[in-house]
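At this stage, I needed to go through a protein sequence along with its fold in token form, as given directly below:
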Amino acid sequence: MAGKNLLHFSAERPFFRLWRHNPGYVAGDIKISKVANAVVDITDIRFEDGHFDHLICHHVLEHVPDDTQGMRECFRVLKPGGTAFFSVPLDHSRPETWEPPAGMPAAEVERICGWDHVRLYGRDFPDKLAAVGFQVSEIRFSPEDGERHRLTEEHALDRQGLDRIFVCTR
């Protein structure tokens, strides 16, 4: 990663520990924490166009009310030829992302979508990324990959929508 700029939303602790001393690493979140060294709003990223070589957004967009704006901002701050990695909980039984109707009580949205989630992504998620300009490909993980990486049953790859990562280039 030497000499590269990486924007990592809601960084996971092992990655933060590994990369935090790299001067180009920005671990962004809505507030400073033990694993965030910068306040970064995904819908209003305060970096210039094309600043980052790489971007990681793992299980963030399902919490963002305007996910399309978040995707646009990620595209904007990524360098041409840069790579972004996105993952979201994905409901493979849904052809399209489900957005709650206006006025639905927050408790009902949470009951349907899960803790602090504001939508249920369907199989159209890669199309949403492509609509903001990304070239999208997928890395798919098999049940054997889950065994190899010791994922527990409660975090089963397909049930949590963790069976794929969307690799996006600008």
